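Final report, closing paragraph on structural work. Over the funding period we assembled a curated collection of sequence-structure pairs, and we close with a single example.
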Amino acid sequence: MNEFKEFKRTQISEMRKVSDKDINIFKNHGFIHISEYPFGNNISISDADKNNGSPKIGDMIARNPKDYSDQWLIAEQYFKDNFERSNQAE
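Its predicted structure, as stored:
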């Protein structure tokens, strides 16, 4: 029996592009720190994404709009398959 069910997103997501700086920090330290928060607040990157070479250019970093310290990586292909620009985006 599959416990996973389909859910549709109902809110706008806040995201930014992965930068060369992010990649260099990850290569040197093994994590990407969220600079606006105390040390230990890092961007979550799944083992599956790390095994596929992330973080890399084309990936996105999402954040919880109600808690900016909650940030995670979204792989490029997943982003392309599941997100589009909001009318509210600049």
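The radius of gyration is 14 Å. The beta strands are 14-17, 60-64, 67-74. We thank the funder for supporting this effort.
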